[in-house]
Specification:
Elements: H1 2-28, H2 34-55, H3 65-76, H4 78-87, H5 92-98, H6 102-114, H7 120-139, H8 148-171, H9 177-188, H10 190-199, H11 202-205, H12 210-240, H13 243-246, H14 249-263, H15 270-287
Helix pairs in contact: 1-5, 1-12, 1-14, 2-4, 2-9, 2-10, 2-12, 3-8, 3-9, 4-8, 5-14, 6-8, 7-15, 9-12
Length: 294
């Protein structure tokens, strides 16, 4: 009962935090390039967790190091660049909506690689959401031109998140969530983020004005809340539930992302609204349960 209550509280918190991350990315891009936003986001989280990681370095499970590195790269490094790159051409609302397709990827991955049996409900739900995704992508174009590249970035990031959720659930579940977050950011991603920030031209191009410091506040909020704290909560949610339930947060995130987008002056076309509604309908169909037979 304790875990049941806890997992819903974490789900609610993750919905607010990750749902707000898309508007924070958008605001950060007003001051920094996509590569700088991604690098800074990871580096700030790494600096935050580095002391705790060093204090517990002896607890680092060497046998699982390859899985920790894999989780760090696919779930906490590459997606941090893909989302800012996509949001240079796509609104934060649409980014949040496309990210809601993560449960579909989780189901497909478990079917393909773990040979889980499919049922008609899964096939129908995935098909409905796929149709919605196509409508959403077609409705996102201007003058009849669909922005395939940024949409591809978002789909790839969502796929990587799905792979990471399954990896953590199957290979890293025995590691305490706070420790896992510290090892991922403080040990594995500290130097990659620092190197990528150097190559982004941050140290040579940035002029330290009051505006830049104001922009840093968005990135720091994104790193501390949307990366460091959120990943701890996500690892904890995977620990007390399962990958499919944990991915349910992506069903609720678009609501928060769209609200922030509308408050910031973004607009959704009729095709985008229809496509998003169909995606969510398909995902809700996947999550619903058949009535039990007596």
């Amino acid at each position: 009962m304790v875990n049941e209550k806890e997992k819903w509280i974490i789900l609610f918190l993750l919905t607010l935090i990750w749902g707000s991350s898309f508007i924070l990315i958008k605001k950060s891009l007003m001051y920094f390039s996509p590569y700088q936003v991604g690098s800074l986001r990871v580096l700030v989280a790494s600096l935050l967790l580095l002391p705790y990681a060093l204090l517990n370095i002896k607890k680092l499970p060497k046998k699982q190091l390859k899985w920790i590195v894999l989780s760090a790269l696919i779930g906490n490094f590459f997606p941090m660049f893909l989302f800012p790159l996509a949001e240079t051409e796509i609104s934060s609302s649409i980014a949040g909506i496309i990210n809601s397709m993560m449960p579909i990827f989780i189901i497909l991955i478990t079917i393909i690689f773990w040979k889980n049996e499919t049922n008609n409900r899964q096939i129908i739900g995935v098909s409905i959401s796929f149709i919605g995704a196509v409508i959403l992508m077609m409705g996102n174009g201007e003058m009849g031109e669909v922005k395939w590249v940024p949409i591809g970035f978002l789909l790839l990031a969502t796929l990587l998140y799905a792979i990471n959720s399954i990896t953590v659930k199957k290979k890293l579940l025995h590691i305490e969530p706070k420790l896992l977050s510290a090892f991922v950011f403080g040990i594995v991603l500290f130097f990659p983020s620092l190197i990528s920030l150097s190559f982004s031209g941050f140290f040579n191009e940035i002029q330290w004005t009051s505006e830049v410091f104001f922009g840093l506040l968005f990135v720091v909020a994104l790193a501390v809340l949307g990366t460091g704290l959120a990943m701890m909560l996500n690892y904890r949610l995977l620990y007390i539930s399962n990958a499919v339930f944990a991915s349910t947060v992506t069903l609720l995130m678009p609501i928060v992302a769209v609200i922030w987008g509308l408050l910031d002056g973004e607009k959704l076309s009729l095709a985008q609204i229809i496509g998003a509604s169909i995606i969510l309908a398909g995902l809700l169909f996947l999550r619903s349960k058949l009535p039990s037979k007596k």
